[in-house]
Specification:
Blueprint: H1 6-24, H2 29-41, E1 46-52, E2 58-65, E3 70-75, H3 82-97, E4 101-106, H4 107-112, H5 118-132, H6 142-163, E5 174-178, E6 183-187, H7 190-197, H8 201-209, E7 221-224, H9 227-237
Parallel strand pairs: 3-4
Antiparallel strand pairs: 1-2, 2-3, 5-6, 5-7
């Protein structure tokens, strides 16, 4: 849908959430397999089926790995049409403007996989970026990405240590249950958890420390220091 009028905008406001939820529950065989592989690898992800930007199309993204600023798109045969290629190009512009990255995989690639890791996904991302580069265009390399992400995380760590209401223990692991995915994820420490779920360290710490765990943020996240505690809190919350 292209938004051109106030009437279109009203439609967006009233239908965004129902359409997003419908698409979140619409999986292709390849997407189902890829989600299984992400869970198996321990890579925390989100399904973003409703990103929207004014004056352009609805933008549906298959997977997003927040810790790595990386979107994953699974392309079936429908992506070979001229119209869909235009949509895909618009979506990639949105991602670039957000200073994030994208890896495109075909249905055939995904269905042939029995495992996935972040190095493969990032290598594919920059290989695809290099192949699309116009003559004289800027090269976005893996080395540059690694340097940017290292700086971002170091700065983020300093900000967290400054703003935290407690002493951060980088040896203390954190467990998360994401109700929209229905799975448990382990993070090596609260800093990694913060970069992944994009909540403040204080909020995550409070959710881990509370003794009567009756609800979580929007009833989506449950946090604990051990998986057994996390499982108990899931029973209390849902």
């Amino acid at each position: 849908m292209i938004v051109r009028t106030k009437k279109d905008m009203e439609y967006v406001r009233h239908n965004f959430t129902p359409i997003r939820n419908k698409l979140l529950n619409k999986y292709s065989v390849a997407e189902t397999n890829f989600e299984r592989l992400l869970i198996k690898s321990g890579l925390y992800f989100r399904r973003e089926k409703g990103n929207y930007r004014y004056k352009t199309r609805w933008s549906y993204f298959d997977f997003y790995l927040p810790y790595y600023n990386l979107y994953i798109e699974i392309d079936g045969d429908s992506h070979n049409t001229v119209e869909q290629k235009t949509v895909d190009a618009e979506k990639e512009k949105i991602i670039k403007r957000k200073h994030k990255y994208i890896t495109r995989l075909t249905n055939e690639q995904v269905l042939a996989m029995d495992s996935v890791d972040i190095n493969f996904l990032l290598d594919e991302c920059f290989k695809q970026s290099a192949s699309k580069r116009k003559k004289g265009g800027k090269v976005h390399s893996r080395n540059r990405y690694d340097a940017v992400m290292k700086h971002k995380r170091e700065q983020g760590r300093k900000d967290m240590e400054r703003d935290a209401d407690f002493e951060i223990d980088e040896e203390q692991e954190i467990w998360l249950y994401d109700n929209t995915i229905g799975e448990y994820f382990r993070f090596s420490n609260i800093i990694e958890a913060k970069f992944s779920v994009e909540m403040s360290v204080n909020d995550i710490h409070d959710l881990c420390e509370t003794k009567e765990y009756k609800h979580s943020t929007n009833r989506r996240f449950v946090f604990a220091y051990t998986k057994s505690d996390c499982e108990l809190r899931v029973m209390q919350t849902y």
